[in-house]
Design goal:
This protein is an alpha/beta fold. The chain contains 15 helices and 12 strands.
């Protein structure tokens, strides 16, 4: 599965009384679906997942899934302290049609989080999960920093497809990218190299009325009008595309994919080997984050650096210092619904709100 690009880890909206505001959740998801974001992460740390009940987590996953555009990659945060509960929520996400599971490192029993424990946890979950697994390392929140060596070892598992590394250490991202270069995997993509997941292919097959039976391999030369189908299909072609309904897809080598979580270090992380990012700052400003990624992707280092410098201070203050309440106020300022957070998270003071607005004044979405 292709995980390249920018993914906002969406917030969970609440009414002032603390109940989940599902209509606003759906509205936000619909709006993110119309941005250049590659996909959407539901129930990440920015989504206050740890402050939700089990039923609320399930309801949020369902509501977001129903509101999302069909062409966006959908990632469900399903990490809970035990493997069995993680698998239960992951299975529910699979039933809803999510494309991947983001699973944070267990951390409560820190003394026992030795390499053998972490390896057993992730391998057990990955063995049994119907969804591809993305490791989630967030030491600022968990107090546990997963060593790069463990990530490299786990990367060989066929159902562990990547990591979200939120520690902010660019050299660690480089080490993980370099240490997993031996892994060779492929992902289905469109002709313009956008992600195509099994869920998307099933939906396309159903909409074309063939239930997946009408897909076929067609050499690129035929699609370009350079050869007849009869002549071109006499021998296999590595350049063949699969036609599903009206969509033409092909394969792209992706390997193990490193995504990062610090917007203020996005460009440096991409240069170090990351392929994308799950950024809390993309909740109020998805397009600004995407502009860094696309400039880097197109090889325009000067523009990428300019875009990076533009939002570095704002990302550090709004996300790094003010946390979820800062992100939510930034969303309110930029036209999304942020709203209140749940206790023990407190609302920003008037002075903090003014600073957020000042920092985002020229980073409107």
């Amino acid at each position: 599965m292709l995980l390249h690009g920018i993914f906002p880890p969406i917030t969970t909206p609440f009414y002032p009384d603390g109940n989940v505001y599902y209509k606003k959740l759906e509205s936000n998801v619909d709006r993110y679906s119309r941005t250049p974001a590659a996909g959407i992460v539901v129930l990440g740390s920015t989504g206050e997942a740890i402050l939700l009940s089990d039923q609320e987590r399930r309801d949020v996953l369902k509501s977001a899934r129903e509101a999302a555009a069909p062409h966006k990659v959908l990632i469900a945060g399903t990490g809970i302290e035990s493997a069995i509960e993680t698998l239960r929520l992951t299975e529910y996400a699979a039933e809803l049609g999510y494309d991947a599971a983001l699973i944070r490192t267990p951390h409560y029993y820190k003394k026992q989080m030795q390499p053998a424990n972490i390896l057993a946890f992730y391998r057990t979950v990955a063995d049994r999960s119907r969804l591809p697994v993305i490791i989630y390392n967030f030491p600022q929140a968990t107090g546990y920093d997963m060593p790069a060596e463990l990530v490299i070892e786990l990367a060989d598992h066929p159902n562990i497809v990547g990591i979200k590394e939120s520690g902010g250490d660019v050299e660690k991202a480089r080490k993980m990218a370099e240490g997993t270069r031996h892994i060779r995997r492929s992902a289905t993509v469109t002709e313009t190299f956008e992600a195509v997941t099994p869920r998307m292919m099933s939906a396309l097959a159903r909409s074309s009325g063939d239930n997946g039976n009408g897909s076929q391999l067609v050499p690129v030369a035929v699609l370009a009008g350079e050869a007849s189908l009869e002549k071109s299909t006499n021998k296999p072609s590595s350049a063949a595309v699969t036609v599903i309904g009206s969509l033409k897809t092909r394969q792209k080598e992706v390997g193990f994919q490193v995504l990062v979580g610090a917007a203020q270090k996005l460009h440096a992380s991409l240069e170090a080997g990351a392929v994308g990012a799950i950024l809390a700052f993309a909740c109020p400003a998805p397009t600004a984050c995407y502009e860094i990624y696309t400039a880097w992707k197109e090889g325009d280092a000067e523009l990428a650096l300019l875009k990076q410098q533009r939002l570095a201070q704002a990302a550090q203050r709004v996300v790094g210092d003010f946390g979820v309440p800062g992100v939510k106020h930034g969303m309110d300022f930029n036209g999304y619904y942020g709203g209140p957070s749940r206790l023990p998270l407190l609302p920003l003071t008037g002075e903090m709100k003014a600073e957020v607005e000042r920092l985002l004044a020229d980073i409107r979405n």
